[in-house]
Sequence to fold (226 residues):
Amino acid sequence: KAGVTQTPRYLIKTRGQQVTLSCSPISGHRSVSWYQQTPGQGLQFLFEYFSETQRNKGNFPGRFSGRQFSNSRSEMNVSTLELGDSALYLCASRQQGGNTGELFFGEGSRLTVL
Amino acid sequence: SQQGEEDPQALSIQEGENATMNCSYKTSINNLQWYRQNSGRGLVHLILIRSNEREKHSGRLRVTLDTSKKSSSLLITASRAADTASYFCATDNNNAGNMLTFGGGTRLMVKP
Fold:
């Protein structure tokens, strides 16, 4: 079974631009979560999608958005990029939507904002 | 905000020694999980312990949970250089929907 796939793995943007990151969960997994990891703030929850619905959202500004498609693939978008958005963005999938069980993480998308 | 606080932040040991990492959290939980992350890579799930369990083993890993003290510990026995990584505890909270709240992590270095 293929793992969680995130694209692109690395990208460089400049302030004010926008970026879209993609995540393909493990086949059969319907829950997809996104996390931001920075040296200063650690791992912070962005949002979680299940069956194309956003079920939970972390404490991030509206510039951060996401969506999930009918095949469970998910995208997140960050508009009007700021230097502080430089981070490793991790996607994780779960087989079901319940609040138990492990998360399966992708390798992440490393975003650098110049 | 981070639910878990991990201690120590960094740990350096020799191969063959045991490594113990501690995690404290603030609110009630459904379960607590430990993850490992190699530098700049994704996280890998190690072990999950439910709120009604006190101890769990998996290979060289031993996890304890004390819900009265809101704390957990991860013990890695007979460490290997390949165990060098960051280790994170994550709590699955009763009232937080379907998100995990991660601690700050412990950076473990195992010297050969």
Summary: Chain A touches chain B at residues 4, 31, 33, 35, 42-45, 48, 50, 55-56, 58-59, 88, 90, 92, 94, 97-108, 110 (CB under 8 Å). Chain A has a mean pLDDT of 93. The radius of gyration of chain A is 13 Å.
